[in-house]
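Quick question: who can interpret this fold?

. . .
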Amino acid sequence: MPFGPTSNIQMLHTDMLGRTIQLPAAPRRIVSLVPSQTELLFDLGLDEEVVGITKFCVRPEAQFRRKPRVGGTKKVHRDRIDALRPDLIIANKEENEREQIEDLMRDYPVWVSDVPDLEAALDMIGRVGILCDRKEQAEVLIDRIRTEFAPLPPRTLAPLRTAYLIWRDPYLVAGGGTFIDAMLQQAGLQNVFGKEPRYPQVDPDEFREAQPQLVLLSSEPFPFREKHRAELADICPNSVILLVDGELFSWYGSRLLHAGRYLRNLRSQIQRSWAM
């Protein structure tokens, strides 16, 4: 469902919610409110054009240290954005708050992504390339990502039943319709909470009832550590429990360049752990 209207100017672009935004020319002052898309902009060569990022846009590290920050993904500071005078704001349906984005749309062109799976991620990269006058660079990036994902083995007929945790106290897991769920499928795993929407809260009894064979503890947004494996082992004593890189499961921009190899290595690690 569209967030809201944009102002009338000249060049037409369609975002991933089907909204039309209009720009007079390629943007020269971009504010990005999404960490994975911020990294993408820099990898497309838009260092000078990106004038504002969030406090969670930690990659690339050099740009994170020197670019002005406009708040977090869920709480942006309107006054900081106004001071930067952006001619384009890039947001995401899931990661940003609707009311804040609608408020920004009243005064700025806001392009919103919606990325539930790998194909949508590649589509987003291509659209951002066109939007920001980096079409060729985006096409090269898309080809490289496809090449990295191509060697992943075909999905098995009996994939391991898997739970993917993103938060502790309370436990939150990745449900269906999320990019994480799609990446689990890319890795040949079955999300035991895939019939639940978005990021459901799960109590220990629900974990036991789901009987996951594999439990993945993400490095973000909650930073699961080795000590948390024992905690989950008490709940799921028959499960293999592994720590995983949350960025490579949930960042849907140019970080996907590293995700294909990571998932292949993870599959090998899972096979070794399951054989022990």
Observations:
- The first strand starts at residue 11 and ends at 14.
- Residues 1-9 have pLDDT under 50 and may be disordered.
